[in-house]
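Worked Example 4.2. Consider the chain below.
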Amino acid sequence: MNLELFGWDDYFSKCAEQYSAQGLHHGRVIIQHKDRYVLITERGEVNGNVSGKFRFETVALQDFPAVGDWVVFDTDSGDQSAVIHHVLDRRTKFSRKVAGDRPDEQVLAANIDIVFLVMGLDSNYNLRRLERHLTVASESGARTVIILNKSDLCPHRKEYTQEVLSIAHGIDVIVMSALLKENIAPLQTLLAPGVTGVLLGSSGVGKSTITNLLLEKDQVKVQNVRVNDSHGRHTTAHRELLMLPNGGLIIDTPGLRELQLWSVDEGLQESFDDIEALAVGCRFRDCRHESEPGCAVLSALDDGTIGPERYESFQKLQHETLRQTLENNLKNKRIQKEKGNKTTRKLRSKPRDLDEL
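Applying the procedure from the previous section yields the following structure tokens:
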């Protein structure tokens, strides 16, 4: 199997040099089932698990393999399955905070070139949610493209498209109908051979239908959505990387019930670059744009330069980012403490040299 077809290039080859010298192999994670993985390797698809040492030494959830990751492994002599020892440095990643109160990062897709944010032009349409998704996508390091699906169900698609363009700020917007197979060509052009994309959006927006169009066959199961609220059950149960007929690569993902922010300082600045540009004119450098005198953002809010809904969305995400930063700092201290404890236990478990006795 030629792994260059799956995105292997000089960047990852350089990352893997030290491991190749040790006789380890490399492959890409194409399916993840909790703690079990399927890799694409030079000898085809193989099942894999992380090694015991990897599991013992890895403290943070985000350091475990995710779909799209390149990993190094050796093979179990018994069943020829892969034993994963290391995850190669990620070029890009799309992450969120895990659901609930735990301050952990969850990597949804790694080493992606394009993040496709899918939103339905039915009752799923929500600009404030899109702003949140754009903030997280901007932090990924990958290119962002917005897909407005279900144009056949929307009598106001021109109005909605203009609203999206007003907050997209240079990001490409594709309006399409997956059901009617309309305007799929721009996606096929973007997903050139070796290019990896990921489809992200709420349940029921048509990600699986779009995936099937790109695959040119009904490989991914699809389900109808509820007419009253456009919500659907999760058609896709796990994240999976698929090769398209033209050589492009797409990661299909389960619908996002929630997308909590994770380390998105730069993403917030990029997604709200209009407000960031105004903030340069604030009297105080650390202005929070709430009640400070001489705040250029509040002045723009008063004169209508920015709308109240966009301002409130920015404030909400900014407060969430500050809270997450504090939680991350506490988590990093905990991780360093756990790593130190593991190192101490490891050293204590080693037999002492007789000369030391």
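Confidence is low (pLDDT under 50) at residues 229-234. The first helix runs from residue 10 to 15. Compare this with Example 4.1 before moving on.
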